[in-house]
Automatic annotation (TrEMBL):
Transmembrane segments: none annotated. GO terms for biological process: microtubule-based movement. This is Kinesin motor domain-containing protein. GO terms for molecular function: ATP binding; microtubule binding; microtubule motor activity. It comes from Aphanomyces invadans. Pfam families: Kinesin. SUPFAM superfamilies: P-loop containing nucleoside triphosphate hydrolases. Residues 10-213 form the Kinesin motor domain.
């Protein structure tokens, strides 16, 4: 699970070689983002916050959680970092830095090592210098490289274990959210008594889910 490899270097080299061939005929702009995806959490591997902010529920090990995937109840996530890159060397430097940040994240959360997928995205905008009708529109294209843990053979037992782990974590997160809602019922527009009955019913179902995942 490493994008800092010869294959990635070859892909980026070929991409920027083709971009170089367009110099003189068009203006080229390239940008890059690098994400780590674990269950429903998205980590921007190019954006690190101060460790002193690690106590926030949205920050884990210096990384913003789901920074590029706001939920229906919150849009307060940090914007995803997108770097402008001029050539394959710039892109590889960014990839290597992101890989170091990923290693740092995995040291804090070892259980994520074989469950985290990586997504490297390079966006290329080509603005032609000449056009037959005197007008031109920028052409945008996107190259995405996805990577899982290719170093281990994944058996069906591993797949089931991964699914069970993610299901249990999602159930626990939902349970924690429900408990937080119960602590502040005054914020519910349905009123105290209605909100309490609703959350109590929801809490019962979530507890059943958590117990089922634990037994399974």
């Amino acid at each position: 699970m490493n994008f800092a490899s010869a294959t990635t270097a070859a892909v980026l080299h070929e991409l920027f070689r083709q971009c170089t061939d367009l110099v003189g005929f068009a203006t080229i702009q390239c940008s890059l983002s690098y994400l780590g995806i674990y269950s429903e959490h998205v980590y921007d591997l190019l954006a690190i916050v101060d460790d002193s902010a690690a106590t926030s529920h949205a920050v884990h090990g210096g990384f913003t959680d789901a920074c590029c995937a706001p939920t229906a109840t919150s849009n307060n996530h940090q914007p995803m970092v997108v770097l402008d890159v001029r050539n394959d060397r710039d892109a590889l430097i960014a990839v290597e830095e992101g890989q170091r940040n990923l290693d740092r994240l995995l040291r804090r959360f070892p259980t994520m090592e074989h469950l985290t997928h990586l997504l490297l995205t390079v966006c290329v905008t080509v603005d032609p210098a000449f056009s037959s009708d005197g007008t031109s529109q920028p052409i945008k294209s996107k190259l995405q490289l996805a990577s899982g843990d290719g170093g281990l053979e994944c058996t069906w037992q591993d797949t089931e274990r991964i699914r069970a782990t993610i299901s249990a974590e999602n159930s626990l997160n939902a349970l924690t959210t429900c408990l937080g809602d119960i602590r502040s019922p005054n914020t519910d527009p349905r009123g105290d008594s209605v909100a309490m009955r609703y959350h109590a019913s929801k809490l019962t179902l979530l507890l059943q889910d958590c117990l089922h995942d634990e037994v399974g």
